[in-house]
Amino acid sequence: QVQLVESGGGLVQPGGSLRLSCVASGPNLDYYSLGWFRQAPGKEREGIACISTAGGVANYADSVKGRFTISRDNALNTVYLQMNSLKPEDTGVYFCAAAYILSVQAMCASTSLDAWGDGTLVTVSA
Predict the structure, then answer these.
(1) Rounded distance, CA 15 to CA 86, Å?
(2) Chain-centre distance of CA 84, in angstroms?
């Protein structure tokens, strides 16, 4: 069973940057796509960035394209989300997720995935 632990959230001013990390543990991690989902206050959880097993393919929500970058280091079993040019509307709880042998497009479009972290809060405010 895959377990995920996020870190790196916090308070940042508009225009600032943050990097989130998620450490995965469990069997067969090389077969899992990994992703970041966001749940803003009063809204449903949405997929914002997903990355393939080897890290060669990524999918982004339109709202974060050009500002966020997802990457993974399989040697460290870690997935990252570099967030630049942050906006107040980026505020929310960010969840790491894992999906067994699923395309990044399908993963980011779904919330029925194999594993979830507990989330880390990102607040963008002056």
Answers:
(1) 5
(2) 14
CA-to-CA distance for 17 and 126, rounded, in angstroms?
A: 13
Enumerate the H helices of the chain as residue ranges.
104-108
pLDDT tens, residue by residue, 27-52 = 999 999 999 999 999 999 999 999 99
Which DSSP letter does residue 106 get? H
Of residues 20, 9, 18, the one with CA closest to residue 79: 20
CA angle (111, 76, 70) in 5-degree steps: 45
Q: Does residue 43 contact residue 82 with C-beta atoms inside 8 Å?
A: no
Cα–Cα distance, 21 to 78 (Å, whole number): 7
Which of 73, 23, 84, 30 is closest to 53 using CA atoms?
Answer: 30
